[in-house]
Design goal:
Elements: H1 8-19, E1 24-29, E2 32-36, H2 37-47, E3 52-54, E4 62-68, H3 72-81, E5 86-91, E6 104-110, E7 129-134, E8 138-145, E9 150-157, H4 161-172, E10 176-180, H5 184-192, H6 199-204, H7 212-215, E11 217-221, H8 228-239, H9 253-270, E12 281-282, E13 290-291, H10 293-298, H11 313-317, H12 323-334, H13 340-355, H14 357-367, H15 373-382, H16 387-397, H17 400-406, H18 413-421, H19 426-435, H20 456-483, E14 489-493, E15 497-503, E16 515-519, E17 523-527, H21 529-561, H22 564-590, E18 596-598, E19 603-608, H23 611-617, E20 623-627, E21 634-638, H24 645-661, E22 669-673, E23 677-681, H25 694-708, E24 714-718, H26 726-742, E25 749-753, H27 762-765, E26 769-779, E27 782-791, H28 799-805, H29 810-826, H30 852-866, H31 874-888
Helix pairs in contact: 8-9, 12-22, 13-22, 14-17, 14-22, 15-16, 15-22, 16-19, 18-22, 20-21, 28-29
The structure holds adenosine-5'-triphosphate and magnesium ion.
Length: 889
């Protein structure tokens, strides 16, 4: 395209557009934001608005579509949700004359990870931006929620660095991920599920289980953004410090790089200092209970396996009154606490709220009136807060002294601490009360914002404007009387200002001093020197009022911004109070009990329930659980399909998790040792999209458990080995159970639900293994699920019964029964496995697959045959015998 053919406006457009690649440019033209060219085509499609064209007449039409400026945020929200980035280009000077091109600039870039406006955010969820970087040996990630100012960074070293990093990614669930371009091939391979080109690349491939790169927007940045020296100086400058020691970042260079990149991106896109980001905290995973992505999903903590939000732990526990509280509760669920002292402090606070119903109600009723201070504060600091935002701040702060007062009665030490953190902010409150009208408009300029009595000049101008208007009314009356034209009107429009309008029929009555301004079909418009005078005054006053209100509002915003840290501290304290009171409310409503947490090794739950299933079903059969790290560390749970094994496993994990959040738990009694991690291998999760079979995923997850579990971990294995041939599956299941039991470093407390009844043999040979079963009652009509877990092992799966209940055709059920009877009557080998295949005709030479024990015996015999006894020292002989014995057991 020949640039000389472009209009000046389009030339300006191209200049700006060139500087913002990868964004959709919203270009302000009068009352509209317009998109042009490619952007217009995308915009029209995604927003379902009409695509038109500019300059059709010139033969080079420019595709165009537009949205009204006052509704722009709802359109942008749609695009952001679809993962687009938007550059907002405004007119940065008033359009003075119609000929001169107004100056335009991009005032903000809005991306999924940096949105600030209410309509673009989920109230009860954080909106994190993540910046990731690292090498094969060390990796770091910075999480920054611009909408609240929270900034956390984590660093991991060693072989499993990336795996740990992804675990954190899953817990924080960022909306946008930044990474250096150098990492792009790896990220892309991960996203596109490509097979890595080489062994070496495969080693660095990101581990399975995380979906964060699929759902978050991916934003590669130039490598220099992650440069250490740059990041370091940016962070120091931002926080006004000369060293990062105070933030625990000394010596964590990769973390500094990640954090620096996140901050860089925010300041770059928002065109603001982001002064509400007042600190950065270094995440120490050991201070939390760690939940890997698979576990977060399997336990249905914040999202159910079917993607819904209804039947989740979060939904059951969430009785918070504020958005800040809802966000914190989510954080506590995804990152339960790992420190006994902190958990106990939380439990003390919850207990006090539980005990004192009236008082809890008082606190909660006041919290209900508190709005999202964190997000308002972010907008204040980013220069986007509206008059209504400041009113929300004012109204919320008014509640703080009341809450503080109510909390005077608190005795739990955490509640006392929180009370002390509440700043009444009298100065800020007084200022906002004096400055803002009761109900200011959503947009500045859409009505009065500044209260009268706050600023003398503003009051004067307002008086003038109102006076002026009544003066015009009087003038109209007077002129009507003087000229004798009853239909004479004084009117106003944008182009001609004030004028006197006289209809054609009355023109002969117009006095000579009237100056003609404009002729219409049925009327003439006039002005007089007196009217001109007043016009100047009134219009001047109204313009000046707008200008002055804008100035005063900006000053007000800046004044509030100066109190950022104090407001933040108050907001955080309110969020904590909200969560603690909400946990108490839920505990009372659902009849939970306070757990006792210990540094010991026992887990004892009496009459425990599954918090979500019990709500769903209404009636629930409670069950006990006892585990320790010696005699009861591997529980093998057998029982019929639909018996309740999976529910039992999950409820154990959820009770431990809730306790470490500081919540009461659904049980009559719970004595729990601290858990460092919960692992789950539950059900069959397919990952076809990732090019991995069910069984492969199952094994990858199992491998991870075996490599990472510690004696402090809680492991749930639900039918491991199910995804393959019976013997392979059973062998793997057996070996996995044995490993978790025997390997001192990985001897986690393990709950293993299985349909391999052979596994119940483990209890005979392993000192820490025990059998439990889920009871059913057999009756003539079928079976009755009791959902009761007791010691012992089940010997039947009742699979056919369940199939019958599921409505399989009667003939199929009857035939299955017949086959089962045959199998059980005479077709089983000594190990209880079918000999079916042996009797099939025409399969000469087929050999029965050996049982586990036979296989062990045979290989031992082979070894013995091959052994040259003369060559053995007595020591070696002894070791061989020991080894042989171990293999046989
Ligand atoms: N303790 C309980 N009280 C009441 N109902 C329960 C209880 N436990 C489980 N149930 C009900 O039984 C259903 C099946 O439970 P679950 O999925 O745990 O069975 P399972 O033993 O794992 O079966 P499968 O072997 O087929 O996987 C649950 O969906 C729930 O409705
Ligand atoms: Mg199950």
């Amino acid at each position: 395209m020949n640039p000389n053919q472009l209009t000046p406006m389009l030339k300006q457009y191209h200049e700006i557009k060139r500087r913002y690649p990868g964004t959709l440019l919203f270009f302000r033209l009068g009352d509209f934001y317009e998109l042009f060219y490619e952007d217009a085509i995308i915009g029209a499609r995604e927003l379902e608005i009409t695509l038109t064209a500019r300059h059709k007449e010139r033969g080079t039409p420019v595709p165009m579509c537009g949205v009204p400026h006052h509704a722009v945020m709802s359109y942008i929200a749609k695009l952001i949700r679809k993962g687009y980035r938007v550059a907002l280009c405004d007119q940065v000077e008033e359009a003075k004359s119609s000929t001169k091109l107004v100056r335009r600039e991009v005032v903000r870039i809005i991306t999924p990870g940096t949105v600030l406006e209410g309509p673009l955010l989920e109230a009860g969820e954080n909106n994190y931006l993540a910046a990731v970087c690292g090498t094969a040996e060390a990796a770091a990630v910075g999480f920054l929620d611009v909408s609240t100012g929270e900034f956390v960074v984590a660093e991991f070293v060693g072989e499993r660095a990336w795996e740990h990093l992804l675990e954190q990614m899953e817990a924080f669930a960022p909306r946008e991920v930044l990474y250096p371009k150098a990492l792009e091939p790896i990220v892309n391979a991960y996203v596109r599920h490509e097979t890595p080109p080489s062994e070496e690349a495969a080693d660095r491939e990101l581990p399975v289980g995380s979906t964060v790169f699929d759902y978050a927007a991916r934003t590669p940045l130039e490598d220099w953004v992650f440069d250490f020296a740059y990041a370091h100086s940016l962070l120091c400058e931002h926080f006004g410090v000369s060293t990062l020691e105070g933030f625990d970042l000394q010596g964590h260079d990769v973390a500094v790089q990640a954090a620096g990149a996140a901050l860089h991106y925010v300041r770059e896109t928002q065109r603001a200092q982001a002064a509400h980001i007042t600190e950065i905290s270094f995440l120490r995973p050991s201070e939390f209970m760690i939940l890997d992505p698979t576990t977060v999903r399997n336990l249905e903590l914040v999202e159910a396996l079917d993607g819904s939000r209804e039947h989740t732990l979060f939904a059951v526990l969430d009785a918070t009154e504020t958005a800040m509280g809802a966000r914190l509760l989510r954080q506590w669920i995804l990152r339960p606490c790992g420190r006994l002292a902190e958990i106990t402090a939380r439990l003390d606070a919850v207990e006090e709220f539980v005990r004192r119903t009236m008082w809890r109600d008082q606190v909660r009723a006041r919290l209900k009136r508190v709005q999202d201070l964190e997000r308002v504060l972010a907008r204040v600091n980013m220069g986007t807060a509206t008059p209504r935002d400041l009113a929300a701040l004012r109204n919320s702060l008014a509640v703080v002294p009341e809450i503080k007062d109510v909390l005077r009665e608190a005795t739990a030490s955490l509640l006392e601490v929180l009370r002390e953190s509440l700043d009444e902010l009298q100065d800020v409150r007084a200022l906002l009360e004096a400055a803002l009208v009761e109900n200011p408009p959503a947009t500045l300029g859409d009505g009065p914002t500044i209260r009268s009595g706050f600023h003398a000049e503003l009051d004067e101008l307002r008086a003038l404007a109102t006076d002026g208007k009544s003066y015009i009314a009087r003038l109209e009356q007077r002129e009507r009387a003087r000229t004798g034209i009853p239909s004479l009107k004084v009117k106003f429009n944008q182009v001609f200002g004030y004028f006197i309008e006289v209809s054609k029929a009355n023109l002969h009555l117009v006095p000579p001093e009237y100056e003609r301004k404009q002729t219409l079909v049925g009327a003439e418009r006039f002005t007089t020197p007196e009217l001109k005078d007043y016009e100047a005054k009134i219009l001047g006053a109204e313009e000046r009022i707008l200008e002055l209100e804008r100035e005063l509002f900006h000053e007000l915003r800046q004044e509030v911004a100066r109190a950022t840290r104090r407001i933040q501290a108050t907001a955080r304290a309110l969020a904590h109070l909200d969560v603690l009171a909400a946990l108490a409310e839920t505990a009372v409503r659902r009849n939970y009990r306070r757990p006792i947490l210990t540094e010991g090794d026992e887990i004892y739950i009496r009459a425990g329930r599954h918090p979500v299933v019990e709500v769903q079903l209404g009636r629930f059969v409670p069950n006990d659980l006892y585990m320790n790290n010696t005699t009861d560390r591997l529980l093998i749970i057998t029982g019929p399909n639909m018996g309740g094994k999976s529910v039992y496993l999950r409820q154990a994990a959820l009770i431990c998790l809730m306790a470490q959040m500081g919540s009461f738990v659904p049980a009559e009694e719970a004595r729990l040792s601290l858990v460092d991690r919960i692992f789950t291998r539950v059900g069959s999760s397919d990952s076809v999209a990732r090019g991995r079979s069910t069984f492969m995923v199952e094994m990858i997850e199992t491998a991870k458990i075996l490599n990472t579990a510690t004696p402090r971990s809680l492991v749930l294995l639900d039918e491991v080995g199910r995804g393959t041939a019976t013997f392979d599956g059973l062998s793997i299941a057996w070996a996995v159970a044995e490993y978790l039991h025997n390997n001192a470093n990985h001897a986690a407390k393990t709950l293993f639900a299985t349909h391999y009844h052979e596994l119940t043999e483990l209890a005979r040979v392993l000192p820490g293994a025990r059998n439990y079963q889920v009871l059913v009652k057999e009756s003539k009509g079928g079976i009755l699920f009791l959902h009761k877990v007791v010691e012992g092992s089940a010997n039947k799966s009742y699979g056919i019964e369940v199939a019958r209940l599921a409505g399989l055709p009667r003939s199929v059920i009857a035939r299955a029964r017949e086959i089962l009877e045959n199998l059980e009557a005479n077709e089983l080998d000594p190990m209880g496995r079918p000999r079916l295949a042996e009797h099939l005709p025409g399969r000469e030479g087929w050999k029965r697959q050996p049982t586990l024990f036979e296989a062990a015996q045979r290989s031992l015999l082979d070894e013995l045959r091959a052994l040259d006894v003369d060559q053995l020292s007595p020591e070696e002989a002894k070791r061989w015998l020991q080894e042989a014995k171990r293999k046989l057991l």
